[in-house]
Amino acid sequence: MIPIGNVIEHYVLLASVIFVLGAVGFLVRRNALVQLMSVELMLNAVNLALVAFNRQHSSDMNGQMVSFFVIAVAAAEAAVGLAIVLSFYRLKSSVFSDEADSLRH
Amino acid sequence: MLEALFPSDDFRLLAIIVALPLLGAVVNGVFGKRLGREAATLMGLGTIFLSFCLCVATFFRLAELQEGERAARLVWHGWQWLPLSPYRGGPGDQIWLEFALSVDALSGAMSLVVTGVGFLIHLYSSKYMQEDPGFTRFFCYLNLFIFSMLVLILGDSLPVLFVGWEGVGLCSYLLIGFWYGEEKNAAAGKKAFITNRIGDFGLLVAMGLLMFYVGALDWKGLEAGAENLLQPQQIWPFGSHIPFFDKLGSFGEWVNTPRAVTAATLVGLALFLGCAGKSAQIPLYVWLPDAMAGPTPVSALIHAATMVTAGVYLVCRMSFVFVMSPAAMFTVALIGALTALFAAMIAFAQNDIKKVLAYSTVSQLGYMFLGVGVGAFTAGFFHVVTHAFFKACLFLGAGSVIHAMHARIHDTDASQDMRNMGGLRKYMPYTFWTFAVSWAAIVGFPLTSGFFSKDEILLKAFTSGIASPLPDGKVGIGAREIEIWQWPPWAGYLLYGLGFVTAVCTAFYMTRLFIGIFFGEFRGWKIVKGYKAAHGHDDHHDHGSHHAELGLAIQGPKPHESPWQMWVPLAVLATLAGVGGFLNAHLFHLHPFDSWLEPVFADAAKHVKLVEGAEGYVYPLLGLAVLAFAGGVGAAYYVYVQQRGEPAQRFTEALPGLHRAAEQKFLVDELYEETAIGSVDSLADVAVVADKWVVDGIIARFTAFVVGAAGSVLRFLQNGRVQAYSLSMVVGVALIGWMLLAPRAEARTRVDDEKGVYSVTAAPGLGYSYRWDANGDGEWDTKDYAAANEISLTLEVAQKRTVSFEVKNALGQTAMGEVPLERPKPDRSGAFEPAPAPPDGAPPPDADAEQNAERALKIIENLPGIKQPPAPPASGEPQ
What is this model's ipTM? Predict the structure, then answer.
């Protein structure tokens, strides 16, 4: 096993930065496609953190296993999300999420 | 063969007898519309006929077993149904009530009547109801009724009987309101149902009382434990005394004197309330005349032949309970006699033929109760059987007449009015002759069935009575001893007198009905030879179209005789009504019926006493009975045939009030309307206010308003922007994260004052580490933070210390907490007070009262802002 010392902090820091980028991107962009990409960023940031922590607590493989799980769910999420965006485009000829407000008060 | 298949202790045939009509009801109810009329008829008739055949087989099996005096009973044990005692652990510890069916001589005879007469009436209905759109529904209800009635009869315990009891009540309700399109019919159904509920309440109470006193509800257990009912039970005052009256001197004393009756009387009266509801006795008879709103076969089957006799059956079934209480038996007999007379008087003034028959039924039911009330159970039950024959025949005959009248008169009331009939003798020979035989039976024409059964009841009313169940006439021990109420010596005269007058009345009004329908000239319409009907026969859809022009103003064909499906049952029933009396003709020493039922009533018969020289009364009373028949019929013949109704007219004019009162049924319905129904209505009015303001206003409207207001505020958050939603989510996640991570300095303390050991535990948290100041010197014990979140320390007596600790979270933030500790001084008893002392001065449980007072005082003195209280009270003395 390679000792990694304080290196984990770098990974966690990087994961945090990517996560915040994704979150901000999701909050400020109105294009649904970009928002989906932002969601992917956040999910991957989580994956990164999971793998890094798993490296530190390497007695089992739970972290890596969960990250595979997340990848699978992310794929499903992207498929459903893109389908929704496509349907929405057919309906409103737009991919901007602020136009999807039929359910507002 | 029957014995091999069905042993007498597991007689499954009973289950089949009961299940067949249920099968018919289910098939007709669920698939009836798709099966069509033919199949529905087959199903309805077939199941009842099979059931009847099996009842006959059961009857013979029973006769085989019941040789000599031995009472035979065939039982089918179904399944364990209700626990009667609480479960105490251990198998076999709990007493269960079985769902069991059993048949003995009494229920065997009754089940024959129900399925036999039931089948004939089913056959009749298959033609009578042919044109009705609800044909299959009718047969579904009718089969369900037979099922319920069989459960009632064959049930082996009171609760099983009660299931059938309620079932027949339901079917009665459904069939009275069968043509529910008319308000009147639906109202009559409801009236019957609700009136019966009052009676059912009595039956439920009786079951509870029997459970309490006897501890069993099945026939065997009740028979074994009936002696337990001979104990006094205080019924007044409730509790020890009535609070207000004990200040009223001698009157209050009189009010508060304890009064007791035997438990048997309570049970008997409660049971009889149930019987009075089901069998239409005073005061609950009012539903039966209205029940004639149902189709005529229903009136014949349910409201004349079978269901309404269930009350008499119950008295017979519980005879061993009733005879324990002379008071209850006298009530039964007296109510029966009064009902008989009262209903007969109303029947005088009715013109609707079904109403006349309905009041006649109430009257005859009164006779039955008179019979069983004086202890002549066989005579009363025999009247049930003969009445089933002749009254079913009379009703079916009336139905046949109404069927004929419907050819030209479609209004329900007009087609049943005897003033529109007359002279039908010529046109409807079968109906006439069968009706004539049943008429002869009900008025007591010598040697018909009614003659024998009614004569027997009247004879027994005079000669028979109930003796005290205990020889000395006292029950209870010591101060609780009470005397059992005894029959007065004039009871026989009173009951016989009422019965005799009723017999005369019955003969009179039945003859009036008979003459009104069949003799004289036809008054319905003008008979035209070769008349062609303008529209279909039995066209029920234009009710009342000829209402305005009744009488001879309209023309029509000759009234026609009914088809064979209708007159064959009439003929069978009329034959039975004619010769059935010889089943119990004591006059000719021919009484197989009596011998058949003897074992069932053997227990009860021990308590029945006859007046001295009872044998000598047989012929004089027989003469009187014939006189009653001859007088009633002769008077009616004189009034309505010889004088063509002249005397009746004069009588009406001379006493208009009396006639109107009888015509309007002595206003009993109106009395109930004003009193019972009126008070319930007032109660409902009060409840409406509560419902409107409390339930609707506060509970419903106000809460809805609060929710609505909250909704209209929160609606503004619902702006449809996905970014806004996700932002709120991010904010929420951040808040939760901060809450989880922020250091919180909270601690729990475990105190042991006696040993002086105190331990402080800081609350755990995500990524927390701690440092402590356990010795209270203001310096941290260790500079570094550690994982240990608990310390323990020992204090001397009266020592105080403040323990501080600091929490650091993963991000380096810190929080500090302090825990003050003090070990109190021991008090005088050597026990330690809890530290700190509770402010309300609640004493520890081991200290005595003096110390409590002192300590509480000290605490009050020490509290800031409280003035010096007055001197402490002297120990233990009240002020």
Answer: 0.81
